[in-house]
What does this fold into?
Amino acid sequence: MTNNQYSGEDMIVAKGIEKFYPNGCHALKSVSATVRRGEVVAIIGPSGSGKSTFLRTLNQLEAINEGSIIVDGIDMYAKSTDINQLRQNVGMVFQSFNLFPHKTALENVMLAPMKVAKRPVKEVEVAAKALMKRVGLADRMNNYPSHLSGGQQQRVAIARALAMEPDLMLFDEPTSALDPEMVGEVLDVIKGLAAEGMTMVIVTHEMGFAKEVADRVLFMEEGALLVDDTPQVVFESPPHPRLQQFLAKIL
It folds into this structure.
């Protein structure tokens, strides 16, 4: 990608992304999208449409076969790029919480800044306690994951991702594994991050949340990006027949 195609206002520039699996599945078909700094982008679509696959290419958890991805000005697939260094600036929250069961909530949040970023323990502890308070779990710091609800575990997972002080957060269906009554508490934390100006890309089935929080909504189907527009356009006057069918089924 030439320099004139990258703007300092862009956090992510993905261009012509192709992804094939060994079984012949064409998972991503020439997907191009840009995410600007401070923007919240929601990705919606039916199961198997490529939403999570595309999200995972943005920190190279999935390799691409063709195309280019620039994250914060760095070409992710350049030979000179240290992908582990780049990932330190990209927080990722998955459907499953992936917390260490033998460590307390606070210890889970402290681990990466100490082990990966090599920050002093006392400094990390102060920051981690502030993050636990930020996600509404100041009274659960010393609990082990098995003593936390699913919603609480996911909020710890968000705090853990924030502990590395990333400039970009990726969420892969962060509420899909939760009981319905726990969804709101996780979405409220994400709304708070949006209000603070965090750049986020969120794969979600929560249409009301996408409409309320996202600056733009991407609709994917069978590996292709069919619609990239504002929530108002996507939900109130969907421009693509397939998007119209999708929304008619779930709204």
